[in-house]
């Protein structure tokens, strides 16, 4: 009963080959076997002879800590063996955090303290503009990754479901952007350094998500991220040439 209450995929999904061994990434028919009367036994992978998914017995906090440590097993558990469906909401919230940070920095650089309603209205639209720019940059980053992976390994992204799974993995692995808000609230002399560390952490998480989802080595995910950053920075340069503060 403890196993079935942690967001594990339903047994019907096994017929679709949805389960994966978190150790060797091979498909598995089931995560555990129910012997009735509360007796459950974790399935053993036929390929590596290890438990298919040991995390179904773990507390969510332990799983989160392992994900923060960028362990491939934790990523496989979350992406393949659970029914987490918060990637869309998480993406919006992360973009709001990034937009708020940029908007706050824009207000700090502005010397106008006039409380006039027109000024407040303009400041509100500044936030919407920052959100739009952050969305375009994020989209450019993802497009750069997809184009690179499709160009280098077209067999990896053959179907729509492959694209959706990778997109979900990238969005979920960007959860580190939620740390932007605490970094701004507890502002101190090391805030720029903290923001840089958050950026690096998000990129490392994105790389691990690509690696786990497509079962790749370490080099190709970083190459895809590099081209994604190039496209993202291209968008930034475009807005700067238009005279916008980004």
TrEMBL record:
<dbReference type="InterPro" id="IPR007290">
    <property type="entry name" value="Arv1"/>
</dbReference>
<dbReference type="GO" id="GO:0005789">
    <property type="term" value="C:endoplasmic reticulum membrane"/>
</dbReference>
<feature type="transmembrane region" description="Helical">
    <location>
        <begin position="130"/>
        <end position="151"/>
    </location>
</feature>
<dbReference type="GO" id="GO:0097036">
    <property type="term" value="P:regulation of plasma membrane sterol distribution"/>
</dbReference>
<keyword id="KW-1133">Transmembrane helix</keyword>
<keyword id="KW-0256">Endoplasmic reticulum</keyword>
<keyword id="KW-0443">Lipid metabolism</keyword>
<keyword id="KW-0813">Transport</keyword>
<comment type="function">
    <text>Mediator of sterol homeostasis involved in sterol uptake, trafficking and distribution into membranes.</text>
</comment>
<dbReference type="GO" id="GO:0032541">
    <property type="term" value="C:cortical endoplasmic reticulum"/>
</dbReference>
<dbReference type="GO" id="GO:0016125">
    <property type="term" value="P:sterol metabolic process"/>
</dbReference>
<keyword id="KW-0445">Lipid transport</keyword>
<feature type="transmembrane region" description="Helical">
    <location>
        <begin position="163"/>
        <end position="186"/>
    </location>
</feature>
<keyword id="KW-0812">Transmembrane</keyword>
<dbReference type="GO" id="GO:0005794">
    <property type="term" value="C:Golgi apparatus"/>
</dbReference>
<dbReference type="GO" id="GO:0032366">
    <property type="term" value="P:intracellular sterol transport"/>
</dbReference>
<comment type="similarity">
    <text>Belongs to the ARV1 family.</text>
</comment>
<dbReference type="GO" id="GO:0006665">
    <property type="term" value="P:sphingolipid metabolic process"/>
</dbReference>
<dbReference type="Pfam" id="PF04161">
    <property type="entry name" value="Arv1"/>
</dbReference>
<keyword id="KW-0472">Membrane</keyword>
<feature type="transmembrane region" description="Helical">
    <location>
        <begin position="220"/>
        <end position="239"/>
    </location>
</feature>
<protein>
    <recommendedName>
        <fullName>Protein ARV</fullName>
    </recommendedName>
</protein>
